[in-house]
Design brief:
Layout: H1 3-10, H2 15-35, H3 44-56, H4 63-84, H5 91-112, H6 118-135, E1 138-139, E2 142-143, H7 150-166, H8 169-199, H9 207-224
């Protein structure tokens, strides 16, 4: 792998970007769950659990609202991987497009989302969540997820165990970074809960601030590359 390819891969490899997008991930889950029919826009495991509970309890009319975000999330992942494999689409351009698209979609939801059905809003949020988690998937070379914490918690504890065994400080640093990502997701949920109490539908516009910071950091990484 040449130097240009390495630089391309490391453009999104910044802890600040990871923290900002994890704040967004937590916020969007709180937003969809509290305002849009008790559906998890990001955490598809939760939707699968709720889906099969509704089926097992003979309430199939509830199933569709869980199926829709699962399907749109899957489509978002597929599209992201499709473009990752296109060599003419540079990593930087791809990630810029994802952030700009996310900014525009969230602005639209915040301004006119109340005029649309919950299912539509949840499907759109799930789609942009998939784009985010598929394209911003590393911090300092370590795989992360900015829309859920299960894998991050596992990796955090694995690195802590490795540090306990080897005393190699790099594992402790990785553990701390995973902890920051997990904490950021939780703080994003709290921000969402508080903002929703005061601003209801328009609270999602707060996510624009975090995405803008991530965008600025991405631009900075590109200039330094």
């Amino acid at each position: 792998m040449d130097t240009v390819q390495i630089q391309e891969e490391k453009l999104h490899d910044n802890i600040v970007i990871g923290v900002c997008l994890s704040l967004v991930g937590g916020f969007l889950d709180a937003y969809s769950y509290l305002l849009k029919g008790r559906v998890f826009a990001n955490a598809q495991t939760g939707n699968v659990v709720l889906l099969f509970i509704s089926v097992a309890s003979w309430e199939p009319h509830k199933a569709l609202k869980y199926i829709i975000p699962i399907v749109t999330f899957a489509i978002g992942i597929f599209i992201s991987e499709f473009f990752k494999n296109k060599h003419y689409v540079k990593n930087y351009a791809r990630m810029v497009m994802v952030l700009v698209f996310e900014l525009l979609v969230i602005a639209t939801i915040g301004l006119i989302g109340s005029y649309f059905r919950h299912d539509i809003i949840n499907s759109v949020i799930s789609f942009i969540a998939a784009l985010q988690v598929a394209n911003f998937d590393k911090v300092d070379g370590n795989p992360i997820a900015t829309t859920m914490i299960t894998g991050n918690l596992k990796s955090c504890m694995i690195n802590l165990a490795k540090y306990r065994t080897t005393k190699d400080i790099k594992y402790l640093h990785s553990c701390f970074k995973y902890f920051l990502i997990i904490a950021s997701f939780g703080i994003g949920v709290s921000f969402g809960f508080i903002a929703i109490k005061y601003y209801a539908e328009k609270s999602i516009l707060l996510c624009e601030l975090f995405i803008l910071i991530a965008f600025i950091m991405l631009q900075r990484e590109e200039r330094l590359a």
